[in-house]
Amino acid sequence: MKLVKSDEIAYAFEVISGEQGERLDKFITSKISEQTRSQVQFLILNSGVTLNNIIEKNCGKKLKIGDLISIFIITKQTSIEPYNLKLDIVYEDEDLMVINKPANLTVHPGTNTDNQTLANALVSYCKTLSSASGDDRPGIVHRLDKDTSGLMLIAKNNDTHLYLCGQIMERKVKRIYLAITYGVPNPIIGRIMTNLAPCKKNPTKMRVVGDETGKIAITNYRVINVYENRMFSLVECELETGRTHQIRVHMKYKNTPIVGDKKYALYYNFNPEFVSKELVDKIKGFDRQALHAYKISFTHPKSLKPLEFEIPIDSGMKEILNLLRVDNHK
User: By the 8 A CB rule, do 209 and 197 touch?
Assistant: First the structure.
C-alpha cells in the first residue's frame, strides 16, 4: 500500500523539557483540546501521526526531548469511479449524512466487488467526503454487511470522521438493529459478551473463540415478539462493539440464527408443517439475512447537539413479519 498525504500538516509539535517520557497519545491529546484520547488513538492507528518524520502507530510510544511530531491524515493512493445510484438520504448537512443503505449493496470496493458500491455512489453524489478511512472508502465511518439494510453515518470531512469514530470507540454512538430469528433467544432479554475471530478454514466467516484469542464483542438484545409457537422471533439488538458479522454470529451463538443468513443459518431447519405455505415460500425465496439497522444516535461534531434517527424495516422483512402469527405469550 502506498501512503500519501491527503492534507497539509494540521499540527506540528516539538517535545520540550518536562514533557519527556509522556505517551504519544496523551501528549497529543494535551495539545489538541478538541480531540479526545480515543480520537487521537484512532488517528495514530490509521497512520495520521509521524514521529521524527516516520509514521508512528504505537499509541504508547514514550517521547524524548527534541522529538518532532506531525499530525495529518494519511490515505491509500487509489481511484474510485462514480456510480450513479439514488441514495436514500435521511439527514444531511455540510459535515455529514445519515443514509438508509438498501440490502444487496456492498459498502466499498474490495477484492471480489465491482464499482457498484455505496462508496462509488457517494463519490457520484458528493463533491467532498472524508478520506480518513482511505481513498477507496470515501466518507465511510462504519460498515454494514452487503445484505444488511439500514442507517449509516457518512462523513464529509476528516474532522467530522475522526470525531464520529472517536464516539464509536468510546461507545457513545448507539446503533440498534432489528432481526428476525429462528427460535427465541433465552433469556428473552440479555447481554452477549464473547470474543470473535475469523474461522481457520474459512476466513470470511467469524466464530466465537476463547478469552485468550480474538476481539471482544458485546451485543445487548431483547425479544420484541414471538411467532408461530416459538419458531420465530423479532429481536432488537444494540451494539456495544462493532465486530465483523457480530450480531449474526451472536444470534447463532444463542442457537437462534437470523432468517436468510446464508453464512450462519444455511442448514437451519424449521418445521414447515405448522406454518403457512406462503411463509415457507417467502423464507425460501428471501435473498438476504433479515437484519436491519433501524436506529442510530450520536452527538453532532460541531453543534454538539444529540441527534437520533429511526427508519422502518424494508419491504422484504416486512413481508415476512406480516405472514408470521404472533404468539399470545412469550
Answer: yes
What pLDDT is recorded for position 2? 39
Q: In this structure, are residues 12 and 71 in contact, taking their beta carbons and an 8 Å threshold?
A: yes
Is 240 exposed, middle or buried (CB count within 10 Å of its CB: 0-12, 13-18, 19+)?
A: middle
Amino acid found at 179? A
- Running along the chain, 330 residues long, what does each successive block of 10 average in pLDDT? 51 90 90 72 83 90 93 62 93 97 89 81 90 81 94 93 87 96 96 93 90 87 96 96 94 96 81 86 92 97 96 94 83
Distances (CA, A) of 70 to 11, 130, 187: 6, 19, 51
**Residue 4 has what pLDDT?**
45
Q: What is the predicted pLDDT for the residue at 3?
A: 40
Measure the CA–CA gap between 4 and 48, rounded to whole angstroms: 10
The whole model's pTM is what? 0.78
What amino acid positions are annotated as catalytic residues? 145
Instruction: Collect all residues with Cβ–Cβ distance below 8 Å to 93 and sequence separation of at least 6.
Output: none
Helix, strand or coil, per DSSP, at residue 26: helix
- Peptide bond before residue 187 is cis, with ω within 30 degrees of 0: yes
How many other β-carbons are positioned within 10 Å of the β-carbon of residue 300? Answer: 15
Rama region for 277: left / alpha / beta (φ>0; ψ in -120 to 50; rest): alpha
Query: What are the grid coordinates assigned to 316, written together?
Result: 422484504
CB environment 113-127: b (16+ within 10 A), e (fewer):
eeeebbbbbbbebee
Helix (H) or strand (E) holding 175: strand 174-182
By residue count, the chain amounts to 330
* Measured distance CA(124)–CA(1) in Å, rounded: 25
> 230: how many CB neighbours lie within 10 A of its CB?
12
Report the Cα–Cα distance between both ends of the chain, in Å, rounded. 52
Host H or E run for residue 283: helix 277-284
What's residue 111's pLDDT? 62
Q: What are phi and psi of 68, to 5 degrees?
A: -105, 125
Residue 136 CA to chain centroid, in angstroms?
A: 16
